[in-house]
């Protein structure tokens, strides 16, 4: 089918009133049975920019699958179904003339669809109104007199002509008023020009072991301002019992210890090479382990630059210099927050790599330095995790004929600065770093030139705009700090004189410290190390320009208070300057208070004190970015930047590029200008956090790391049938199992959701029903009691699966205790007749709300339906209710689309108040009762794969590359057949004696008998060898094999993997025997 119909859409521009209705064209792509698939195209035909859209569809059928959009509302009448479809985060913003699409599958009696007008809801609209917000805090309970919980209420922008006031009141959470904190209420006033006030709440100390508790401070009734964040949470850390908290009491607006901890974590996420066995990020693996093989060296290790996988030497080395500088200036911050080991590990990982890149003569002098691994243009054309990279990764170097003083001197600075941090732990290693640093600096000084002239591939990404003079000063300063040799200070002074000026006899002051220009960092260091008037004047001129202004010149500020130097990485420049301001303020004491205030304001902006009331640090604070431009954390399995919709993993601690000059920002993965992350973005930011921690404290998180409580694949499990005892040994926490001993559970090494590993195969025997004689069942303890968890897994039913009346699927469960089944509850799924999926909760039998109703069903949202032969992704959320309150929550997602939402349910009361989420309840069988009508009519099978339980939303990873596990990729089936599941691997559709699977491997057309894998033979003449030819296809390798008996074959020669379609020729060596030849094609 390819007929077109029309729906209407109303768009809202970023600012202003609704526009007139806009046309949305809908194409009916295909139909199968009582269903059809359609694609809707939304086009902005106006001259304004859309920020979001909401299309209303009236259909003669129900939507059972939707992509690139969300169902916001749904109504039905006797004649039709009405849906409101809204944009996803990445396709809501439409510039004039731009289009986007969403698609859906409808179950209907016919393919008709009626047009209907609709509306669009606006997204966030910038405002100039003053905004009030209250920050979260963490306090230690203490004994006896306890302590004070100091909340900071911020106002931005400041109001210069009126007094702003706001009321506040405390509210109990898990902490109890009077016994844990003193209930309080009141109001605070902001005099003209004042931007922050504090409210102190007394925390009651005791010697009881209580665990963490919390209460909140709520804002209300603001005058002359709008409340953008009304609730601040105070977490009370229990210090009774065996507790060793990393940090100290928090007195500032944010928990700088937590931010520092997470910022260090980001560098682990960027690691390249062979990762250690105890690596703390489960979704990262070893990658690019062959780097340098093209030049015969081991250049593995180091760090990926940003959201890509190139290793750019200049920003990498600069980032390590800045990280080391932060520790040199504020060492106690790293020690007290428990980050000193992480810092040393990061610096050593980088230094090991940089030394591998340094090629030396026997006398120690420099031969070359490899300043880049990976081609930026090739790398940026691929959107996939680093672990899956297959492209060539060329190595680029500088040497005497192709100099790079900036790169070599920056690397010298990095190794020298790192040696200061690492000397106490390993003096021999530190001495080795210094040895390399001196040789590299001498090379930089003797062979002058810009590295980007010698490595042109770098120029498009990290061109050396400022030249190399700043690095010659910078490197000498750090060699002086590392060696205490006055000759290096003298060298720095000499080279400093050659730094560029502003044209009026002073050094430049209207830019900032970055990977490219270190002059501004040199101002700070020389003023602190030497103290001469000219150095002091240079640094204060620059910091004044960033603060209150210098001689009428001042950096641009956003309305919300961000010092905005440049759009690309706006927060990076502000954070680097903030760090320098803290270093200088610490050096000059009270005279530097203004610089310290500037620094605090800039870092607080990044952490959440801004008009958008959001953190710009992933995994930290309020409403942080969840979709940074970052291939690894996105986790796409399809090569698409848009799938999955939300990044699969939280990139903790990563500072994104940041807002525009008007505080505008969208969490858009495709916007690498505002939403990419990078090594150098976090470098000065980390040091600034360390400085603020030393002043304002905070506590690092004791349970920080992966939010996953369980991640199980069976790829390492033995293939074949299993017994109850073997299964309990393999699956973590399994206490009891039913089904394996009866031969109903096995590990299948032929089918898996990703086409690479293994899966669980369950048998439902003919005539079986319920768990005693159908499917399999076990309880896996999560080793804790949880209130709010997510669970996901993949499931696939056989191609001819008969669903009969229904059956059960896995979920989460719990009880008062693991052994106590009388108080058991579960949240799970059930398949129904025709494959319809339902989410439900089974409540404890003692529930006194409605003892007669133990099953609470939910079919809200679209009707999820299982398609036999196809993998489906299930995600379930269970949130326990407060005992006696109607505030429990069940949510469900089917292939990433929300299919269930049951808020305000009640199943935990006084008799069951101790019930919690405690186990994975793997339970699957035919049946809903003991009646024979539920029995399987024949032997049936289903497969399960990749189980995850997490404290946070797991998300849909996107459609598997081979969604029906028939060894034919989706894109290939969709190219030649109706859709991604339409072909059969064993069928020969064009009658050329090659199956569809053979045609896929060969790269030929499965529907064209003339296009088949064939070999041409050119007979040998006297003294020559025969020639064999075939048409080669991109992505494949061709192997010539030889045999003398047509039974045993050996490889004669082979091609590399072809990068494009081309003819392949082989000319085997003649031997004085009878040989048979064949060409084999492989698709790696």
UniProtKB/TrEMBL annotation:
GO molecular function: cellulase activity; polysaccharide binding
Reaction(s) catalysed by this chain's protein: Endohydrolysis of (1->4)-beta-D-glucosidic linkages in cellulose, lichenin and cereal beta-D-glucans
Stretch forming the signal peptide: 1-21
SMART domains: Calx_beta, CBD_II
Domain of life, per lineage: Bacteria
Any one GO cellular component localisation term in the record: membrane
Keywords: Calcium, Carbohydrate metabolism, Cellulose degradation, Glycosidase, Hydrolase, Polysaccharide degradation, Repeat, Signal
EC number(s) given by UniProt: 3.2.1.4
Keyword Flavoprotein part of the UniProt annotation: no
Active site positions: 667, 676
The family this protein is said to belong to: Belongs to the glycosyl hydrolase 9 (cellulase E) family.
PANTHER family documented for this protein: ENDO-1,4-BETA-GLUCANASE
Protein name, as recorded: Endoglucanase
Species of origin: Haloferula rosea
């Amino acid at each position: 089918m390819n007929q077109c119909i029309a729906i209407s859409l109303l768009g809202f521009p970023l600012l202003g009133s609704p526009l007139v209705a806009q046309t949305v064209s809908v194409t009916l792509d295909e139909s199968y049975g009582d269903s059809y698939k359609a694609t809707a195209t939304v086009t902005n035909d106006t001259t304004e920019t859309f920020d979001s859209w909401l299309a209303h569809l009236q259909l003669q059928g129900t939507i059972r699958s939707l992509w690139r959009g969300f169902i916001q509302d749904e109504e039905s009448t006797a004649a039709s179904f009405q849906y409101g479809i809204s944009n996803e985060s990445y396709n809501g913003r439409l510039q004039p003339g731009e289009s986007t699409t969403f698609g859906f599958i409808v179950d209907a009696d016919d393919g008709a669809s009626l047009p209907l007008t609709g509306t669009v809801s606006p997204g966030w609209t910038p405002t100039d109104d003053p905004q009030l917000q209250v920050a979260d805090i963490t306090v230690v309970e203490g004994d006896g007199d306890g302590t004070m919980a100091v909340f900071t209420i911020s106002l931005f922008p400041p109001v210069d002509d009126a007094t702003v006031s706001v009321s506040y009141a405390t509210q109990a959470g898990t902490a109890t008023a009077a016994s844990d904190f003193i209930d309080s209420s009141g109001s605070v006033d902001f005099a003209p020009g004042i931007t922050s006030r504090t409210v102190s709440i007394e925390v009651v100390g005791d010697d009881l072991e209580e665990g963490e508790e919390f209460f909140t401070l709520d804002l209300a009734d603001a005058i002359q301002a709008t409340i953008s964040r009304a609730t601040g949470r105070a977490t009370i850390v229990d210090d009774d019992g065996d507790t060793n908290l990393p940090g100290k009491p928090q007195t500032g607006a944010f928990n700088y210890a937590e931010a520092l901890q997470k910022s260090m974590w980001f560098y682990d996420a960027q690691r390249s090479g062979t990762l250690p066995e105890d690596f703390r990020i489960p979704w990262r693996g070893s990658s690019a382990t062959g780097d340098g093989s093209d030049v015969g060296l081991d250049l593995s290790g180091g760090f990926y630059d940003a959201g890509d996988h190139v290793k750019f030497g200049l920003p990498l080395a600069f980032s390590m210099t800045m990280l080391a500088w932060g520790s040199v200036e504020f060492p106690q911050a790293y020690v007290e927050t428990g980050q000193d080991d992480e810092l040393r590990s990061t610096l050593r990982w980088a230094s090991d790599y940089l030394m591998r890149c340094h090629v030396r003569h026997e006398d120690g002098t420099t031969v070359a330095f490899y300043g880049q691994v990976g081609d930026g243009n090739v790398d940026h054309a691929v959107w996939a995790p680093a672990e899956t990279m297959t492209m060539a990764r060329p190595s680029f170097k500088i040497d005497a004929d192709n100099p790079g003083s900036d790169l070599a001197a920056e690397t010298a600075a990095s190794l020298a600065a790192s040696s200061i941090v690492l000397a106490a732990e390993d003096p021999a290693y530190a001495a080795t770093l210094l040895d390399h640093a001196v040789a590299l600096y001498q090379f930089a000084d003797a062979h002058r030139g810009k590295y980007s002239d010698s490595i042109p591939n770098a120029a498009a990404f990290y061109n050396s705009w400022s030249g190399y003079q700043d690095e010659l000063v910078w490197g000498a300063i750090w060699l002086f700090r590392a060696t205490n040799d006055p000759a290096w200070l003298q060298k720095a002074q000499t080279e400093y004189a050659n730094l560029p000026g502003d044209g009026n006899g002073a050094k430049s002051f209207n830019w900032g410290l970055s990977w490219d220009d270190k002059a501004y960092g040199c101002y700070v260091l020389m003023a602190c190390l030497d103290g001469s008037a000219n150095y002091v004047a240079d640094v204060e001129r620059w910091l004044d320009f960033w603060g209150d202004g210098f001689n009428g010149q001042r950096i641009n500020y956003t309305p919300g208070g961000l010092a905005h130097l440049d759009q690309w990485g706006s927060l990076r420049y502000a954070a680097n300057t903030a760090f320098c301001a803290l270093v200088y303020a610490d050096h000059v004491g009270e005279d530097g208070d203004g610089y310290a205030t500037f620094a605090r304001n800039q870092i607080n902006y990044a952490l959440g004190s801004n008009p958008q009331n959001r953190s710009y640090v992933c995994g930290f604070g309020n409403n942080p970015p969840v979709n940074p431009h970052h291939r690894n954390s996105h986790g796409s399995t399809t090569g698409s930047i848009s799938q999955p919709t939300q990044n699969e993993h939280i990139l903790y601690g990563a500072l994104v590029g940041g807002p525009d000059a008007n505080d505008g920002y969208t969490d858009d993965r495709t916007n690498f200008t505002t939403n990419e992350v990078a090594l150098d973005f976090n470098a000065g930011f980390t040091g600034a956090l360390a400085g603020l921690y030393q002043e304002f404290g905070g506590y690092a998180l004791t349970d920080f790391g992966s939010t996953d409580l369980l991640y199980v694949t069976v790829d390492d499990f033995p293939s074949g049938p299993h017994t109850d005892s073997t299964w309990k040994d393999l699956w973590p926490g399994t206490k009891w199992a039913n089904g394996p001993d009866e031969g109903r559970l096995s590990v299948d090494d032929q089918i898996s959701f990703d086409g690479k590993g293994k899966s669980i195969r369950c048998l439902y025997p003919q005539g079986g029903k319920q768990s005693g004689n159908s499917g399999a069942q076990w309880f896996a303890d999560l080793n804790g009691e949880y209130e709010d968890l997510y669970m996901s897994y993949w499931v696939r039913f056989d191609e001819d699966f008969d669903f009969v009346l229904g059956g059960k699927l896995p979920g989460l469960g719990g009880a008062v205790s693991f052994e106590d089944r009388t108080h058991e509850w579960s949240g799970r799924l059930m398949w129904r007749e025709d494959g319809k999926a339902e989410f439900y909760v089974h409540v404890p039998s003692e529930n006194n709300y409605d003892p007669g109703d133990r099953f609470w069903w939910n079919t809200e949202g679209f009707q999820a339906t299982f398609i036999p032969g196809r993998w489906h992704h299930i995600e379930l959320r269970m949130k326990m209710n407060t005992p006696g309150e109607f505030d429990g929550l069940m949510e469900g997602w089917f292939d990433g689309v929300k299919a269930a939402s049951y808020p305000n349910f009640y199943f935990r009361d006084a008799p069951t108040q101790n019930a919690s989420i405690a186990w994975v309840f793997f339970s699957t069988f035919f049946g809903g009762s003991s009646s024979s009508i539920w029995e399987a009519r024949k032997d049936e099978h289903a497969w399960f794969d990749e189980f995850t339980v997490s404290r946070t939303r797991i998300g849909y990873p996107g459609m598997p590359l081979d969604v029906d596990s028939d060894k034919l990729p989706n894109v290939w089936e969709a190219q030649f057949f109706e859709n991604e599941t339409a072909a059969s691997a064993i069928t020969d559709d064009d009658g050329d004696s090659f199956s569809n699977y053979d045609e896929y491997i060969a790269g030929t057309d499965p529907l064209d008998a003339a296009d088949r894998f064939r070999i041409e033979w050119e007979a040998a003449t006297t003294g020559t060898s025969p020639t064999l030819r075939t048409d080669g296809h991109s992505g494949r390798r061709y192997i010539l094999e030889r045999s003398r008996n047509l039974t045993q074959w050996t490889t004669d020669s082979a091609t590399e993997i072809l990068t494009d379609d081309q003819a392949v020729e082989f000319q085997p060596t003649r031997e004085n025997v009878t040989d048979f030849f064949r060409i084999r094609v492989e698709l790696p």
